[in-house]
């Protein structure tokens, strides 16, 4: 599939006219094997992927940067500008004086002069400094949203990133950011798939010109933070059989039809190829109605924050009781 066949969405508050490819390759992985990552990125570029998602937390920035440098050297892409690269600010750097240094560190890891998108990874801060294996309650603190967002805006003004956004933000927290932002967030990256459809949040973001990006759009099956509930859902299986598609393709097509973008992680060549094959067919109205009736609940976020990122009194304290 040619990269030109992947649709792009315009970012509301981006510097310049560069669009965001609606599908990207995620690089968050438990094995953190840089050679496997590099091979996957190079294969993805050959297949037509141009959007790559990383984060300071993932430990994948360096491997992704090496793969991009190799792709440029091999002529797989003509220039850096053909690629859309996202990274994220982790909670220990979510302090106004640490945002720019953290982004510069990510750029060094990636061997890039600028990002296309920089996100606040979680709506919470932790004590500055080294990252412990787990966080105690005492390590975590409310984020100073106004000053941290001002530092994010400065990143864009300095040309260190073309656009800025957030991840795991509720409607209430987005509304707070919008109340004082000079540069509104372009993107909110959240858990999104047919088992957790995020209707209220998607409506809020659409009304405020914020693109929703789905992380773990297939439920992150096989990971410690994921679930098999999405890919093993019987409604989705039935639709996939009727359409002659995989369950993964049905999920990704559904997300695309909702007007959202997505980042999906796979290092398998055939699945990388299959995940791109969602743009030349459509779900029927009957399919859409069946998916609407699927019982709704999160399958990723609670496990992710508690098991991988340390304890917190209640997830609702992060989300203000709403998604």
UniProtKB/TrEMBL annotation:
Alphabetically ordered keywords of this record: Oxidoreductase
Residue stretches making up the NADP-dependent oxidoreductase domain: 24-292
GO BP, one annotated term: secondary metabolite biosynthetic process
Domain of life where this protein originates: Eukaryota
Residues where substrate binds: 121
GO function terms (MF aspect): oxidoreductase activity, acting on the CH-OH group of donors, NAD or NADP as acceptor
Keyword Transmembrane helix recorded: no
SUPFAM superfamilies xref list: NAD(P)-linked oxidoreductase
Site, as annotated: Lowers pKa of active site Tyr: 88
Active site (record annotation): 58
Identification of the protein by name: Aldo/keto reductase
Originating organism: Parasponia andersonii (Sponia andersonii)
Taxonomic lineage from the root: Eukaryota, Viridiplantae, Streptophyta, Embryophyta, Tracheophyta
């Amino acid at each position: 599939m040619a990269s030109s066949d992947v649709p792009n969405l315009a970012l509301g508050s981006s510097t310049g006219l560069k669009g965001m490819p609606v599908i990207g390759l995620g690089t968050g992985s438990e094995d953190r094997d840089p050679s496997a990552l590099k091979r996957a990125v190079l294969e993805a570029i050959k297949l037509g992927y141009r959007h790559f998602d990383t984060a300071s937390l993932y430990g994948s920035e360096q491997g992704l940067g090496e793969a991009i440098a190799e792709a440029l050297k091999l002529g797989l892409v003509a220039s850096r500008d053909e690629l859309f690269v996202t990274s994220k600010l982790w909670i220990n750097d979510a302090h106004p004086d640490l945002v720019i240094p953290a982004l510069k560190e990510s750029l060094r890891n990636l061997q890039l002069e600028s990002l296309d998108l920089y996100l606040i990874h979680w709506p919470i801060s932790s004590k500055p400094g080294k990252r412990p294996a787990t966080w105690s309650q005492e390590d975590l603190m409310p984020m100073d949203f106004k000053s941290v967002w001002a530092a994010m805006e400065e990143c864009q003004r300095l040309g260190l990133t073309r656009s800025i956004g957030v991840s795991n933000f509720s409607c209430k927290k987005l509304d707070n950011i919008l109340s004082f932002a000079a540069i509104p967030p372009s993107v909110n990256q959240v858990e999104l798939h047919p088992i957790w459809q995020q209707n209220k949040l998607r409506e809020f973001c659409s009304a405020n010109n914020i693109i929703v990006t789905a992380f773990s759009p297939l439920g992150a099956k096989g990971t410690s933070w994921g679930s098999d509930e999405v890919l093993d859902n019987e409604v989705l299986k039935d639709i996939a059989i009727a359409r002659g598609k995989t369950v993964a393709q049905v999920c990704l097509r559904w997300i695309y039809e909702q007007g959202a973008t997505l980042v999906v992680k796979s290092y398998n060549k055939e699945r990388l190829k299959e995940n791109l094959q969602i743009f030349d067919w459509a779900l029927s109205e009957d399919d859409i109605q069946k998916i609407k009736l699927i019982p709704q609940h999160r399958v990723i976020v609670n496990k992710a924050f508690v098991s991988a990122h340390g304890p917190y009194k209640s997830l609702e304290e992060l989300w203000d009781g709403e998604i």
